[in-house]
Design goal:
This protein is an alpha+beta fold. The protein is built from two helices and two strands, in the order αββα.
Length: about 100
Amino acid sequence: MGTYGKGIILLIIVLLFITFGVENSRTVQLKYYFEGLTIDFPIYGVVYISIIIGIVIGMITGLRSRLNMRKTVKHLEKENRELKEMVPKEPSSTESAP
């Protein structure tokens, strides 16, 4: 997909987020365990924060698995080099000509 296609998709997503925020601008009262800790917050803010937290958790999980894969690749490359050293080299076609 070209740069224009990605830009158009990004623009559509941004417009969807903006219109969602405009349509859901009423405030809700968030209470967290204690009666004194209440916050008035717009509905779209709660949704956006939840999405951002999900993205961050996904990125952390992806980073962890990527680091594990990198370790596995290094181990397999080392094993591949060791196995290549064990295989006898075939004489080239120019060396075997009489």
